[in-house]
UniProtKB/TrEMBL annotation:
Residue stretches making up the RDD domain: 18-145
Protein name, UniProt field: RDD family protein
Main localization category: membrane
Transmembrane region(s): 25-45, 57-76, 112-133
Amino acid sequence: MNKLLINTPQNVKIEYNLASLGSRIIAFAIDYFIILVYYILIIVILDSFHINMKDSWLFFGILSLLSLPALFYPLVMETAMSGQSIGKKIMKIKVVKIDGTRANFYQYFARWTFSLVDIWMCMGGIAITSIALSKYGQRIGDLSAETSVISLKAKLNLQQTIFEDVPSEKDIIFPQVIKLSDQDANKVKEIYDGAVRRKDYNILLALTQKLENILDVKSTMHPNDFVNQVMKDHYILFRNK
């Protein structure tokens, strides 16, 4: 699977798995099922007010007006939910810039605009072909906006973690990590990944202080190095247990 490799300001390399074509199609199907349900509700409501096909101009005029939320649904949702729609959130995928950072409104707008070309005008044929052939799984809208769609699902393969070349137990710096459960360690990594992804040093500093309190240690290391070391030590200590 292709990946986006991001080098953060803390000089930490993070790999994002690109969203699979299947997950993107399912997310699309979920979103447009929601839109279809919305359309059905509109028609039911109009019918309940006795606005029907007998007065076709009035019916289609009101229907067109009430259809605007459905038309702008992808753009509004991705803008409001930082690159996700309901379908994308369910499938745990997200639109980001090609450098891994958060996309902006203009990029969401470009993706939405070009969806008329690569999705609707050819029943998704161009979009699917472009996603399959491009290096970063980009449809025409992504290429124009310089975005891609990544998977937020956790991957536990050692090659994708900071523990790739971990030595033996004698290299543990903080044996106090025995106080952390697997659930605690996973939460630490989740918070750490979020801090790096958002480039938020305050979160990283708060995480460091919290770990120092739990482990009853006082580190002189840089917060980024300290959190990495704690995660490494926990892995070494518990990898064979």
